What we know:
- This protein has 326 residues and is an alpha+beta fold.
- The protein has helices at residues 2-28, 42-53, 56-67, 73-87, 104-108, 155-159, 209-212, 218-221; strands at residues 125-126, 131-138, 144-148, 151-154, 169-177, 185-187, 192-200, 224-231, 234-241, 249-251, 271-279, 284-288, 293-301, 305-307, 314-315, 320-324.
- The chain has eight helices and 16 strands.
- It has an eight-stranded antiparallel β-sheet, with no helix packed on it. Strands 1-16-14 form a three-stranded antiparallel β-sheet, with no helix packed on it. A three-stranded antiparallel β-sheet has the order 6-12-10, with no helix packed on it.
- It starts with a helix and ends with a strand.
Amino acid sequence: MFRLWKVIRARHLLGAAGGSAIAYSAWNTPPVPPSLAEPATPVQSTIRWAARALPHRATSRMYGLMAGWHIPEFLRSPIFGAWAFFFNADLDEARYPPRAYTTLNDFFTRPLKDGIRPIDAVADVVSPADGLVTICGQVSPHGRLDQIKDSSYALDGFLGCAPEPGPGSSLYYCVVYLAPGDYHRFHSPSRWHICERMHIAGDLLSVAPALVRRVPGLFTMNERVSLIGQWAHGFYSLTAVGAFNVGSIRINMDDDLVTNLHGSQVGMPPLRRPFMHLSERGDELGRFMLGSTLVVVWEAPDKQFEFTVQPGQVVRVGQSIGSVTL
């Protein structure tokens, strides 16, 4: 009886501690700034509030610390093999065997074998990552792009700047979701000049399609890093969106970038850094520590960009997304 009481008491204490942590996080979570708050139904507003109330930033930082812990060699193959089985990851594509990765971070960001992702030789825009195309299309004349069908968000709030297409041109976009089992490095979708890095603080809500469908403007609330520049047809950008347990975003050419900083929150002014970097199609640009979402936005002549993918399609790095049809 005494042992049973100890178990019940421990469970109550754990439940109280967890409830207190969530209550404190909810009380301490700032509201979404009006400029970023997209219209939502009462149900969507409740889901958005509940998702933001969770201590996702602190949990992601804790997970990041754990993912850097050294794993003994005899445990690596069982741990990474179980992960691959559960999340359907293909370890045969990895450059090194599982025992070569000393931490979870090393494993999650594992490089692929040379030549295993050929870059389409013709397409103007190729996939920057392995993942799922959740949506693609043309940015509306009012500067909005779809998060899902019938739910959109403002491009300027998302990027931290307001790109204006030139006469006779429009903006196009493609969103690629990287699942936990996918290859976590991302690459340049086109040949372009990167002129600026924009680091925008925010939440770290899950970007799983199930939540994206239920939380309007989720991408404008999450922490993200935008690379802004120009290509042959005008404006070009690639944005890496952070997510739950993916607070760490690395950009290869930017050693100063530190994401998920303690005290940062949605609505803070973007941190900007100028660049002068020419990136070729397929060049590795950075990596996520787990899985997340990439949003590519580019300018092209009106009605003269043809997509070769559609929402719901699985893509691989270097696969054609589309081309300008001049």
